[in-house]
Amino acid sequence: MKKLVVLVLLLALISVSTVSVFAAGQGETGKDKPIKLGGVWPLSDITGKQGSEAAQQAVDEINAAGGVLGRPLELIILDSEFKPEKGAAAIERLATVENVDIFLGGMASSVHLGQIPILKKYKKLTVWTGAASHLAEEAIGEDADWYFHLHPWDYEQGGSYVDGWKAIVNKYSEIKVDKWFLAYEEGAFGSASFEASKVLFSEMGKFDGESFKSAAAGGGDYKAVLQHAKESNPDIFLWAGYGADALPLLQQSKAVGFEPALYVGAPPGWPADFGNSPLAEDVFLYGMWAPSMNSINPVSKKFYDGFVAKYGTKPATYFAPLSYSAVYLIKDAIERAGSMDTAALIKAMEQSEYKSALGETITFKPSKIIKHQGIEGQKILQWQNGRQEIIWPFDFSTASPVYPFPGWDNR
């Protein structure tokens, strides 16, 4: 009798164990398991805040429409804090603790240089929205078939600026760009921008420049650089830094009486309320997108309206539609691949033809070093009446340029 009871208990235990293991297996491989995306952005900066929010917007839209291959997407967001060591640690955590399937996001070349060794260690599909420095491209190398870079490299950006200014000068003969001065933040982004621009713009005229410590890195005193720029008397003054530098540079330009005919800012993102300042009027800028794109691009309007509805604020940086596009590129690639196999995903990403909110249809082809480069240039825009208007390419133009930059007393 005792043997019979023991036998029954053993059979029951085996049965329960088998059911438990089967259930666990179903949880690991079933259609309820999310596809995990790991994103890293500098969340204190508008580029990272709105970039991550736009990525989440895309995830929510895709999930509301049924997910991908019947599975939901899950976005895990970590903060790089604009620090290379924090950005690297975030990638490590996403790979080992969160067990994400795909990496995306990113902003700031100096941070990315710290992340690249970790990305190379895990070789997961990576769709990166930031890092313009050619130093980052060199660090990635030519064999990283798992790496897809959306943002133009510095030399690509510079090339598009040259093309743009040549086209603008050709169309508007009153505009002169014979003498240049570039004030640039002293980190990897600004320094690389200066070196690339010096080569590219030298064919158009005299080129000079000087570095400053960005407010994003604890600086914020630009008077010496601006005084030197004033003494140089350029036709076109450019600055390459971050959103935190935008208004202080204008305020200090006014303080030293610096009024160049063309005043151009080149941060990756602008403060959300920048256009409300009278100092912003008729400042030129480089970017990949502006809200004015909504009038000519239905994908842009869909993104913009969805962002405003979800967050109650307007997207103010091109990193928002860029991050939104990254998620949809991933979604389309997974559907084409039909699985989460890395080799299949890479092949599917290589077949991308995504009509984006940025205006361009995003495809991938080799740049100087990497195999998969997406967008190859930026646009020239201008703040007019508190709104970013697209000046060039003329195919996307929403306004004509205002020239020259009005004096401080005329504001």
Question: What would you note in describing this structure?
Answer:
By secondary structure, the protein is α/β, with parallel strands linked by helices. The chain has two domains: 35-152 and 294-362, Rossmann fold (3-Layer(aba) Sandwich), CATH 3.40.50; 155-287 and 379-410, Response regulator (Rossmann fold), CATH 3.40.50.2300. The chain has twelve helices and 14 strands. Helix 9 (246-256) links the parallel strand 8 and strand 9 (262-265). Helix 2 (46-64) packs parallel to helix 11. It is globular and about 65 Å long. The model is unreliable at 1-28 (pLDDT under 50).
SSE topology sketch:
Elements lengths: L1 H28 L5 E7 L4 H19 L8 E7 L4 H13 L5 E4 L3 H14 L2 E4 L5 H7 L6 E3 L4 H18 L7 E7 L2 H14 L4 E7 L10 H10 L3 E5 L5 H11 L5 E4 L18 E4 L10 H14 L7 H19 L4 H9 L3 E2 L5 E2 L16 E6 L2 E6 L19
Helix pairs in contact: 2-11, 3-4, 4-5, 6-7, 8-9, 11-12
Labels describing this entry:
disordered N terminus, single chain, 2 domains, seven-stranded mixed sheet, alpha/beta, Rossmann fold, five-stranded parallel sheet, 43% helix, 411 residues
Can you give me a brief rundown of this structure?
The chain has 411 residues and is α/β, with parallel strands linked by helices. It has helices at 2-29, 46-64, 84-96, 109-122, 134-140, 154-171, 188-201, 223-232, 246-256, 298-311, 319-337, 342-350; strands spanning 35-41, 73-79, 102-105, 125-128, 147-149, 179-185, 206-212, 236-240, 262-265, 284-287, 354-355, 361-362, 379-384, 387-392. It folds into two domains: 35-152 and 294-362, Rossmann fold; 155-287 and 379-410, 3-Layer(aba) Sandwich (Rossmann fold), CATH 3.40.50.
